[in-house]
Amino acid sequence: MNSKHPKQQVDAEQLDLATRAAWLSFIGGYTQGEVAKRLAVSPVKAHRLIQLAQQQGMVKIFIEGEPARCVALEEQLAKKFSLRSCLIAPSDHINADDNEANFNEVGAGAARFFYNILNQLPQSSCVGIGKGRSLSALAEKLPKINRADLTFASVSGSFTRKFSANRLDVVQQFVERTGGEGYFMPVPYLARDDEEHEMLMAQASVQFSLNLARNANLYAVGIGGLKTNHYLHSVGLVTDNDLEELRSAGAVCDLIGSFYDIMGKLVDHPLNGHGLGINAAEMAGKRVVAVAGGLGKELALLGALRSGLVTDLVMGEVTAEKLVSLMEFK
Amino acid sequence: MNSKHPKQQVDAEQLDLATRAAWLSFIGGYTQGEVAKRLAVSPVKAHRLIQLAQQQGMVKIFIEGEPARCVALEEQLAKKFSLRSCLIAPSDHINADDNEANFNEVGAGAARFFYNILNQLPQSSCVGIGKGRSLSALAEKLPKINRADLTFASVSGSFTRKFSANRLDVVQQFVERTGGEGYFMPVPYLARDDEEHEMLMAQASVQFSLNLARNANLYAVGIGGLKTNHYLHSVGLVTDNDLEELRSAGAVCDLIGSFYDIMGKLVDHPLNGHGLGINAAEMAGKRVVAVAGGLGKELALLGALRSGLVTDLVMGEVTAEKLVSLMEFK
DNA sequence: TTTAGCCTAGAGCTTATGCTCAAGCCGTTT
DNA sequence: AAACGGCTTGAGCATAAGCTCTAGGCTAAA
Questions:
Q1: In chain A, what residues touch B23 (CB-CB under 8 Å)?
Q2: Concatenated DSSP letters of A58-84
Q3: What was the pLDDT predicted at B246?
Q4: Burial class (CB in 10 A: 0-12, 13-18, 19+), A283
Q5: Residue B101: φ, ψ to 5°
Q6: Cβ contact B313:B77 at 8 Å
Q7: How many of the other CB atoms lie within 10 Å of CB of B186?
Q8: What pLDDT, on a 0 to 100 scale, did the predictor assign at position B330?
Q9: All domains of chain A, ordered by start, with CATH?
Q10: CA-based nearest residue to A305, from A267, A268, A253
Q11: Smallest Cα–C1' distance to nucleotide D21: which residue has it?
Q12: Which letter does DSSP use for residue B26 in this model?
């Protein structure tokens, strides 16, 4: 055995075998036991090879068609909010109050949705990436693709007030899934005051990321709620006090550091000038994919959608139904 | 329950549920038991729904990437025979002599391949369809698609010598999978003599199908061998005597009723004028996808490929390896 | 009553995973 | 320098979990 590059060679061989195992299993329709015989390995190994192939994202599964109810909701929402496209992930009404399950389903649906968009993206595109559990769920379920040409730039500050790095910036997850490059902004989400805002925004490292984010032609963002159990607060990006002030100023949602009221207007409050990152309005005219996982955020969604900045929307069926019933709410 | 259209309505509801089940199972990653709970049905029913979704072809699975060996073979074959594209389905060398398994794997791979081609086909295209077990396997594994605009026309006679309809003309299978229209030729595969040939070809019904087939812009054909265990003979489309004569005239393969020698030249024998259907040469310049399932047909393949009529090729790895080693054979 | 369809239960097979063991690779010990 | 022992890695065994199919009983419509 010539093994100049022992580790790499083994890996390549393993992947090759994994590919064969996946073909036999998924396309040929053989059981793992049969695959094992055909590849002359133990059944356990066959199973692990197939598992490996899946982890590597070699296996892509698509479901064609959606439940009629979802299609109807999509059409209503797309029309009402002038969306370019809309995906409603089917979810059951039995466990309609399971927040985690909702993130799981919406994330999985959004991953499929975003996967298609990424595939159509021209070479060397830059994608602006927001924050939140929804996007994190998306990235986690995104099939691995080979797009080292892509650049992912965070559209907002990534640190908490204490300047500690956020455990898992979503940008990192996208980089890991695609092999592309990632940039984040080494500043908090919100500045303490105008002075700090000006100072931090002037930093060269921030300006660099900011320019990338501004020139992106596609954005993936979450829609943040303003309750203490919502992402923004739960990871310490904003304080109790901030939230309190924003809410009393009429804000219902957070779109990458800009705060909108139920009618989709920016609320008149100093904090709206403290967001570190691109201005939400700077996304206008670009493709903005919003992923709305999590329950109980209908009013936040209403505000965000009415801002007119979102062009593509992914959410769960239960949320979509509530949203439709609230469409005229003010 | 208002059930004006009991059967259809139940089916639609079932399908809707099946779609939900498939989403939860394949995209959400839940176990069948969990799917059952979420849809409020019994686990068995959940299982059946998921199964139904698969049978309906809602679930599309793709494997990205092929074993290095297959890629290498594809490149060699594509270059040698000037193919537009080539797919080598991975198969193992352990069960390299399992004929049925080979049809299964090649058919499944070919189905994926053809599915992509069909998706790119313009509206209202006509597809010429050949015969054989390989194509039958392809059609069987083809995901269901909704293309009522397509027309499938048999490129050759479909009856055996006794004028009995062939149990399952492949055209029928394609029609069933796509919802398109199908036309076959109500005549045998080969005429008895020149006179019969002329008479049958002159029939209006034959002319009608023939014109459709001639105007197709895509063909899917098998490559037939000339042994008694091969399709042509096994279903009674040709007699022992025919085969004997063809072989002694140097023929090694059958391409929709035309017989070629190992160098890819039409053999000089009266039977070459007796084929009922379009002339193989009439496909020249069109896209011709050949599916070569089954083992021990390397020489037949060599003849068929050398004819220059085939533009796209699907075969199994074992066959491809043998073929490569015989590429210069004469 | 009969028939068809659906559900329940349970057996048998397939798939997933924790645990164990063996082999190779250091860094340390004699 | 040779030997020892922990550490990592990969493989298989055993078992748990999950999936699929069959038979039998129940309900509802003919």
A1: 63, 66, 89-90, 105, 109
A2: -EEEEE----HHHHHHHHHHHHHTT-S
A3: 94
A4: buried
A5: -60, -40
A6: yes
A7: 16
A8: 81
A9: 6-55 (1.10.10), 69-325 (3.40.50.1360)
A10: A253
A11: B44
A12: I
For the residues A81-88, what does the mean pLDDT come to? 96
- Mention every residue, 6+ apart, whose C-beta is less than 8 A from residue A51: none
Question: Could you tell me if B27 lies within 8 Å of chain A, comparing CB atoms?
Answer: yes
User: In 10 A of CB B121, how many CB atoms?
Assistant: 17
Look at strands A59-63 and A287-292 and give their pairing: unpaired
Mean pLDDT of chain A: 89
pLDDT computed for residue B92 by the predictor: 77
A301 vs A306: CA distance, rounded Å: 8
Task: Check the CA dihedral A131-A132-A133-A137 and report its sign.
Answer: negative
pLDDT band at B195 (very low <50, low <70, confident <90, very high): very high
Decide: helix, strand or coil at residue B142. coil
- Is residue B9 predicted with pLDDT exceeding 60? no
CB-based contact A220:A135 (threshold 8 Å): yes
Give the tokens for residue A272. Answer: 């709206």
Kindly determine whether residue B108 and residue A67, on different chains, have CB atoms separated by under 8 Å: no
Residue type, A78: A
φ, ψ of residue A205 in degrees (nearest 5): -60, -35
| Most trustworthy range by pLDDT among A79-88, B89-98, B100-109 | A79-88
Among A73-82, A294-303, B111-120, B226-235, the minimum mean pLDDT is found in B226-235
pLDDT for residue A89: 94
Contact status of A26 with chain B (Cβ, < 8 Å): yes
* pLDDT at site A168: 56
B255 in Cβ contact with B304 (< 8 Å): yes
pLDDT per position as a tens digit, A309-319:
999 999 999 99
The 10 Å CB-count burial string (b at 16+, else e) for A111-149 is bbbbbeebeebeeebbbbbbbbbbbbbbbbbbbebebee
User: What number of other Cβ atoms are within 10 A of residue A55's Cβ?
Assistant: 11
